Amino acid sequence: MGNSNFFEKVISSIKNNAINYKQLEYLKSQIWNDYKSPKVILGQIQAANNNLLNKVNALNEVEFQVFSQFGDDGIIAWLTTKLPLPNKTFVEFGVENYREANTRFLLINKYWSGLVIDGNNENIKQIRNEQIHTFYDLQPECAFITRDNINIIISTSRFDKDVGVLSVDIDGNDYWVWEAINSINPIIVIIEYNSLFGFEHPYTIPYQADFVRGTSMPFSFYGTSLLSACDLAYEKGYIFIGCNSAGNNAYFIRKDYMQHLPINSVTPQQGYVFASFTESWDNNRKPFRGAEKINSINGQKVINTRTMNQEILNADSIISLLKEYNKLPRI
Description:
There is one protein chain. By secondary structure, the chain is an alpha/beta fold. It has a single domain (47-324), classed as 3-Layer(aba) Sandwich (Rossmann fold). It has helices spanning 2-32, 38-50, 72-82, 104-110, 121-129, 131-135, 150-155, 174-180, 226-236, 268-271, 291-295, 315-324, and strands spanning 89-93, 113-118, 138-142, 165-168, 188-192, 203-204, 238-243, 249-254, 301-304, 309-312. A seven-stranded mixed β-sheet has the order 3-2-1-4-5-8-7, with helices on both faces. A three-stranded antiparallel β-sheet has the order 6-9-10.
């Protein structure tokens, strides 16, 4: 009798757990297959409203967030609607598992074709195991990007040279990698910049092929200044049109397409936005804010991209200039 009760309890437990497992699997599918979620529909409605605007004074007027880290989904949706792009293709690298990315909404909302690259094999496996990989024309590639291999990797996509969107975000050698790219000639380029370098200093980190952010240098020391990105863009034939409100992504349009866009170009000073977020802390795990963030990278060796000479980052000079132009929210 005792054994009978025991086995009944075991069977009952298995049934209950099976039900819970099914519920968890259902919830997981709803979360991971988020291209079917209401937030996509809301993004599509907002995108449609933005497209009615005849003139935009700044990119923050069309921002909204679906899958991007900040408001970049709205900016990209607006740009790709206003511009007569010959190819609905994108290349984005530094995507991690592609759950949060600049091009995910573009892929889902407009059925573009895309190449995404990340250096972590587990991230790429995760993308390949998602339905988004089979439902859409998405090519994930695992590679640690350097200026020497980026063109070879991009060539695997077999995209036409006039790619619609290039998004560069590798938290490190962004300037050097974009400088090296010659296998494509994208219409829209989005590049992450480091606002802690200010807007009047043409700085980037020294090139180091195996650079990994936060390993041997402060976590906030990475990437390129906005001025260096703008200088490089000009050399490559692009116009700077502004940054997102969060202060981490700069937008450039190929010169031969600017005539189609109802927005004016801006200078680095006009378009510069100091990053609203913080990614560094003191020894007591208190987050740095305002000028503290700039001071956290004081004395680091940087490359002046106009002279290609090495310099030492002077936090005081950057802070002083940002205060003068009211670009620093906290002292």
